[in-house]
């Protein structure tokens, strides 16, 4: 139809700034993904994530569970060396891939010869689709702060007491033969105090 003017075509071919906008979208999406990956070793969630990680780490330790996902993901947990950071990055990669796939499918389903987008614009839409789930996934975790409270014992075999602090919660303390072990003990104490507990394992 001679009088028909495609909005998509006008947006991408009629405006010289469309390429700049698309490039900016790609850069922004990469910045979001990079920021979430860089912060994957930070944050401490006392609700869903704590339950999921503990269930994945020791699926048989719970008296009752609504699903068996802990057993399904336990091999991945072992493969990643028990790293919560690596588990988060894998989860982020899955979410980003699903978002990108959904955006790509949207473009494929809606595309007609008259509305075909330039490659850069298509890449921008896919990049945005990958970044949007990451924004939800990574930016809401509160970040704990750890403080060494005490160090005692001989120099060759010290014992550390560390406190962990989260916003709007009282600090919890833990003891360990290293700062890392004390931090983990403090985090475990925080979880126990907030009601995230294990049942005793079999045997």
Summary of the model, kept short:
The chain has 203 residues and is mainly alpha-helical.
Q: Hey, roughly how much beta strand do the residues contain?
A: 5-15%
Q: How many domains would you count in the coordinates? A: 2
Helicity range: 40-55%
The order of strands across the largest sheet is: 1-2-3
Order of helices and strands: HHHHHHEEEH
Number of helices: 7
**Secondary structure category:** mainly alpha
Our measurement of the CA-to-CA distance between the termini, rounded to an integer number of angstroms, reads 77 Å
Poorly predicted spans: 1-12, 198-203
Largest sheet report = 3 strands, antiparallel
The tally of beta strands, per DSSP, is 3
Average pLDDT works out at: 78
Anisotropy-based shape:
elongated
Q: What would you call the quaternary organization?
A: single chain
Rounded radius of gyration (Å): 24 Å
């Amino acid at each position: 139809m001679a009088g028909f003017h495609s909005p998509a075509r006008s947006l991408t071919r009629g405006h010289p700034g469309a390429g700049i906008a698309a490039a900016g979208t790609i850069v922004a999406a990469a910045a979001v993904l990079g920021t979430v990956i860089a912060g994957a070793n930070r944050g401490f969630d006392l609700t869903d994530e704590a339950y999921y990680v503990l269930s994945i780490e020791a699926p048989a330790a719970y008296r009752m569970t609504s699903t068996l996902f802990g057993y399904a993901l336990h091999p991945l947990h072992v493969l990643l060396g028990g790293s919560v950071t690596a588990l988060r990055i894998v989860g982020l990669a899955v979410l980003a891939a699903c978002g990108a796939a959904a955006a790509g499918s949207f473009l494929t389903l809606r595309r007609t010869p008259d509305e075909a987008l330039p490659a850069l614009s298509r890449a921008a839409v896919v990049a945005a689709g990958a970044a949007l789930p990451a924004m939800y996934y990574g930016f809401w975790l509160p970040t704990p702060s750890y403080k060494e409270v005490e160090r005692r014992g001989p120099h060759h075999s010290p014992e550390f007491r560390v406190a962990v602090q989260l916003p709007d919660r009282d600090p919890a303390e833990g003891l360990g033969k290293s700062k890392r072990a004390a931090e983990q003990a403090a985090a475990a104490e925080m979880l126990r105090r907030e009601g995230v507990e294990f049942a005793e394992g079999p045997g």
